[in-house]
């Protein structure tokens, strides 16, 4: 088998039958070898291809492959690869390289991909000869799925893709442990038993490692409030649950401090407490125990940290802990009292449909209004973790390609970073609804004291959508138009101009 065929063979054995990309000359020798039962998902922007692969991962929990076009494609996609790096999404980023014997001449398209990608991938390798192909691919795969998960880059010279890699391919299994040991659980139980108040802060790892139900049981057994981590990228907890206390502020650490200093102990489970835009105070003053699968996150923190599977930790703690705190919960209707405006009503209207849908959100000004008014189940809300605009629509489309129903709720500014994703949704029949909230520019920036023309780009996203073959219109009658959007299974975009 040739190197390309070998790579597809390994992918198939690992259960991967699709590839995301935007090709160029340097990838064609590899892509010519793609078997007929693979799907190539074309994106009209290299970053969107990566974003779609990330969304597909979130839907399937299986690592995904992206194929990028040498230096132009890779550099175009770096911000999305960084998103995967920050949000711990396992990807193999396969980049077409110039002929292996001409790299020294640096022809057009050539690049030092290992240098270019440094800082946004876990590791990067170049397949220098056919004999390395299998080893490199297996190594990249293993690295991507060893916690903390993340993207790994492979550079594949276009001539090497066509060389004979032999027929002896063995694909090893890779098991990763990280169960939590008893002494650690006992330590935490002692700490819990010595305090009078406790709060849980839950993060994205709860969803990544399917621990939503286990978290609910622990919270109920302890009877303690549960907060979303400040920069919530995946909803970890049902927002209608009486123990749910809402999201911590993603802006000021001082607001996080104000909320959490009421508690004698804070248990951070699979999330990042100090991941805020303005780190104005040091949260290390709080009494925190943090549990994470991610040793890198743990080593940065100045409080107690435990590196093991958060799911295993939660299960074992729930079994052994015997304390019930006195905490009076708040029901949802009380929390949403002061949210009466036009947009809040539209968001609440969506509740009729949320059984079937997940939300990909990227509307900075309206994020909190959305979270406070839509009843979010665990793992039903997704948002960029790195702060990258353009991710929500791309990842939402990728998530829908696995057959899921998605509502993307996107600001007009954010929409313009990746409208091309709509083309892929149409082409591959993703079940996507889009709501664009058009406040005529970058409101979340302008409201911080700069009312400048360059923060107010006016565009008409619904007209752009039409150009990609996506049914779209501007909202005129709130009730009727939300019904138009949500009342059937068709792909549609509704633009709400404020
Ligand atoms: C790739 C990228 N470029 C720039 C920014 C900075 N940024 C943050 S919010 C924002 C404005 C987004 O506009 P819109 O989606 O309409 O939301 P609004 O601010 O109006 O709520 C910008 C440009 C970013 N987060 N990501």
Task: For the largest sheet, list the strands in their spatial order.
Answer: 2-1-3-4-6-5
- Total domains, how many? 3
The 3D shape can be described as globular
Mean model confidence by pLDDT: 95
Number of strands: 18
Give me the Rg, rounded: 24 Å
Give the biggest sheet: 6 strands, parallel
What is the name of the CATH class of the largest domain? Alpha Beta
Domain Thiamine pyrophosphate enzyme TPP-binding: 383-447
Domain Thiamine pyrophosphate enzyme central: 187-314
GO molecular function, one term: flavin adenine dinucleotide binding
Pfam family, one: TPP_enzyme_M
What tags apply to this protein structure?
DHS-like_NAD/FAD-binding_dom, 3 domains, 6-stranded parallel β-sheet, 18 strands, Rossmann fold, alpha/beta, flavin adenine dinucleotide binding, TPP_enz, thiamine pyrophosphate, binds thiamine diphosphate, 36% helix, 498 residues
Topology:
Blueprint: H1 3-13, E1 18-21, H2 25-31, E2 39-42, H3 46-60, E3 64-68, H4 70-86, E4 91-97, H5 113-117, E5 123-126, H6 133-144, E6 151-157, H7 182-193, E7 198-202, H8 204-208, H9 212-222, E8 226-228, E9 244-247, H10 253-260, E10 265-269, E11 288-292, H11 295-300, E12 304-307, H12 310-320, H13 332-335, H14 342-350, E13 357-362, H15 367-373, E14 381-383, H16 391-400, E15 405-411, H17 412-415, H18 421-427, E16 432-438, H19 443-446, H20 461-467, E17 472-474, H21 478-486, E18 492-497
Parallel strand pairs: 1-2, 1-3, 3-4, 4-6, 5-6, 7-8, 7-10, 8-9, 10-11, 11-12, 13-14, 13-15, 15-16, 16-18, 17-18
Bound molecules: thiamine diphosphate (TPP).
């Amino acid at each position: 088998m040739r190197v390309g065929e070998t790579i597809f063979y390994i992918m198939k054995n690992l259960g991967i039958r699709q590839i995301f990309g935007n090709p160029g000359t340097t990838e064609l020798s590899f892509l010519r070898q793609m078997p007929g039962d693979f799907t190539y998902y074309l994106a009209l922007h290299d970053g969107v291809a990566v974003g779609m692969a990330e969304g597909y991962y979130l839907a399937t929990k299986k690592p995904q492959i992206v194929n990028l076009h040498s230096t132009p494609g890779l550099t175009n996609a770096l911000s999305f690869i960084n998103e995967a790096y920050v949000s711990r999404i396992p990807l193999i980023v396969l980049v077409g390289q110039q002929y292996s014997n001409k790299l020294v001449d640096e022809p057009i398209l050539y690049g030092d991909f290992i240098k270019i990608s440094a800082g946004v991938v876990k590791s990067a390798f170049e397949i220098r000869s056919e004999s390395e192909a299998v080893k490199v691919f297996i190594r990249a795969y293993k690295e991507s799925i060893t916690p903390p998960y993340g993207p790994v880059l492979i550079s594949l010279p276009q001539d090497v893709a066509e060389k004979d890699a032999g027929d002896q391919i063995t694909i090893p299994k890779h098991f990763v442990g990280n169960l939590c040991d008893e002494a650690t659980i006992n330590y935490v139980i002692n700490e819990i038993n010595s305090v009078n108040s406790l709060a849980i802060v839950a993060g994205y790892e709860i969803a990544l490692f399917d621990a939503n139900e286990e978290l609910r049981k622990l919270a109920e057994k302890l009877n303690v409030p549960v907060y979303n981590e400040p920069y919530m990228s995946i909803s970890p907890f049902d927002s209608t649950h009486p123990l749910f206390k809402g999201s911590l502020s993603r802006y000021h650490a001082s607001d996080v401090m104000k909320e959490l200093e009421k508690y004698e102990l804070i248990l951070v489970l699979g999330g990042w407490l100090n991941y805020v835009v303005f780190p104005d105070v040091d949260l290390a003053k709080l009494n925190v125990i943090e549990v994470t699968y991610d040793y890198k996150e743990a080593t940065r923190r100045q409080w107690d940290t435990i590196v093991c599977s958060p799911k295993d930790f939660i299960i074992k703690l729930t079994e052994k802990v015997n304390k019930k705190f006195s905490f009076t919960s708040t029901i949802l209707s009380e929390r949403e009292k002061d949210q009466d405006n036009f947009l809040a009503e539209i968001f609440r209207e969506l509740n009729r449909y949320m059984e079937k849908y997940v939300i990909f959100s990227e509307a900075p000004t309206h994020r909190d209004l959305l979270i406070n008014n839509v009843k979010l189940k665990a793992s039903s809300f997704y948002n960029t973790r790195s702060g990258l605009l353009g991710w929500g629509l791309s990842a939402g489309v990728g998530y829908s390609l696995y057959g899921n129903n998605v509502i993307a709720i996107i600001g007009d500014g954010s929409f313009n970073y990746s409208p091309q994703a709509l083309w892929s949704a149409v082409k591959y029949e993703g079940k996507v609804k889009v709501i664009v909230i058009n406040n005529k520019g970058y409101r979340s920036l302008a409201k911080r004291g700069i009312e400048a023309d360059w923060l107010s780009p006016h565009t008409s996203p619904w007209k752009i959508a039409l150009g990609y073959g996506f049914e779209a219109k501007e909202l005129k009658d709130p009730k009727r138009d939300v019904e138009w959007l949500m009342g059937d299974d068709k792909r549609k975009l509704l633009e709400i101009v404020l």
